[in-house]
Amino acid sequence: SVLSISVCWxxxxxxxxxxxxxxRLWNLETASCQAMCLHEAVCCFSVDWSQQRAIAGxxxxxLLFFRFSTGDAIEVLWxxxxxxxSISSVSLEPGCQRALSAAASDGKVCLWDLRDQSLLHVIEGxxxxxxxxxxxxxxxWLLTAGKDGVVRVWDIACERxxxxxxxxxxxxxxxxxxxGAS
Length: 182
Known about the structure:
The protein is an all-beta fold. It has strands spanning about 1-10, 15-20, 25, 30-35, 40-50, 55-60, 60-65, 75-80, 90, 100-105, 110-115, 120-125, 130-135, 140-145, 150-155, 165, 170-175. The strands form 4 sheets. It has a 5-stranded antiparallel β-sheet with strand order 13-14-15-17-16, with no helix packed on it.
């Protein structure tokens, strides 16, 4: 079964992640698999189609940043341990300058500089059971979703901490449904 996809209509391709974690690059016109890659247990991935780059988080807590071209195998640009346990979510900045990674097991969100593989920022204590993240790269507002069903909004560009703060981020607010259900 397919768990996640990313599509580019212009190039007529899509990436898919299967149940066992492998990534496949598909040609949508021919309905054929152009490349099967990253046979590791990929938990999540994010693609910048214009740059033909992607980042994947794997169960062993590593990040893989790679380049691809339609019809060819991938080229792993770098591989780096980043979290204790499986990476639950990644986000790739348009233009491939920076990326975010998060892991449910350690409750950390890491901001990476992809050009030199450096860790720019670590935000700890965000949520127990962190499942997903999304980032407005211009405003540097981070949204996290945990197993508690609450979406939290964080300012990760702030110099001065406001509200309930963690290391490197200020909590701006929480989004909860009226019924309390997720």
